[in-house]
UniProtKB/TrEMBL annotation, chains A, B:
Pfam families: MarR_2 (PF12802)
The species this protein was found in: Rhizobium aouanii
InterPro entries: ArsR-like_HTH (IPR011991), HTH_MarR-typ (IPR000835), MarR/SlyA-like (IPR039422), WH-like_DNA-bd_sf (IPR036388), WH_DNA-bd_sf (IPR036390)
Residue span(s) of domain HTH marR-type: 11-149
Protein name: MarR family transcriptional regulator
Length: 162, 162
DNA sequence: CCTTAATGTATAACATGTTATATAATAACC
DNA sequence: GGTTATTATATAACATGTTATACATTAAGG
């Protein structure tokens, strides 16, 4: 068994560590989504959630809202267009800006997600780390250990059983 | 100004959030490395640190030690071979396994890094989040705000001035 | 107004993670 | 001991982030 250097090195490898935990969390989240039979990627959810919250947004505003760069937003919106969840049209007053809005199918997805999927995911993550406290490195260790012990998809409202 | 949905949604977008903070932290770390004039990527450091700590390791052990998949480790080790920091040769007793070891150049890099760069990075990250406490979402918010206010590269032993 | 600068989006090239699978070497089992 | 299973690494194909840059449209200045 090999030592986990990223964990051992602590603050020095914090970037690598946060990335890999985030990737693991997103993969686990994807599993919950897939098991619910939905056709969407975990990373696409923040985009439709942003439009649901704020109304139609431009590519640039979406990039800001989700915290990635504009080309990344352009690509993800392209995928959501393909999937039929959003619609895009030039802003009437400024032909450079593209307003992205939810289609009926997209709104249905949001409505269903709000009712069924998002609460489940949020509850599972809260089960994983909602009660944690203390220095961040300790919390990260607890999260990694927790995910290794019980993956996110098995943390649905069955907290008491453990 | 658009709302940061990933932050707003809390536990629901924790995966995206950790990933993006990790990416930001690694980009900032890279800046520190570049400013020191070193030719290495932040993401490659854990590999040579692992070998420095444990001695020659196989590709599979390195993948484990760094917490990524084997193909990822194969690629990064390929880059470190190109850079001349590591050497690879089949294990004498098992020709399937490839033992990766530090070259003299690689050992020099580690020695110099231990003395100059790693303490600087660790100190900057500790300055950013070493004193934090409390629920993880609050700490993440503090980290994001902290990075926006003062990037990692400007957090070198000048903590008192702020 | 007409040129030039600024802004918003798209595209290209690259980085680095993943999964699935091919290939080579070793271990296991009649 | 020769076939079959397992193991270790390499490679292919893909996902999703980045930076740099091209292109179209609008704003600004003379």
């Amino acid at each position: 068994m090999v030592e986990d250097v990223v964990r051992t090195l602590g603050f020095l490898c914090m970037g690598s560590r946060l990335r890999r935990i985030g990737e693991r969390l997103q993969a686990d989240t994807q599993q919950v989504i897939d098991e619910a039979g939905l056709s969407i990627q975990a990373g696409q959810y923040p985009f439709i959630a942003a439009i649901d919250r704020a109304g139609p947004l431009t590519i640039g505003e979406l990039a800001q809202a989700v915290g990635i760069t504009q080309p990344g937003a352009t690509r993800t919106i392209g995928q959501l267009l393909e999937l039929g969840y959003v619609d895009m049209q030039p802003a009437p007053d400024d032909q450079r800006r593209r307003l992205v809005s939810l289609t009926d199918k997209g709104q249905d997805l949001v409505d269903h997600s709000k009712k069924v999927i998002w609460p489940r995911i949020a509850a599972a993550v809260a089960d994983l780390c909602g009660d944690l406290d203390g220095p961040i490195l300790e919390q990260l260790a607890a999260i990694e250990d927790g995910l290794a012990a019980v993956p996110l998809a098995r943390r649905n409202a069955a907290k008491e059983e453990r």
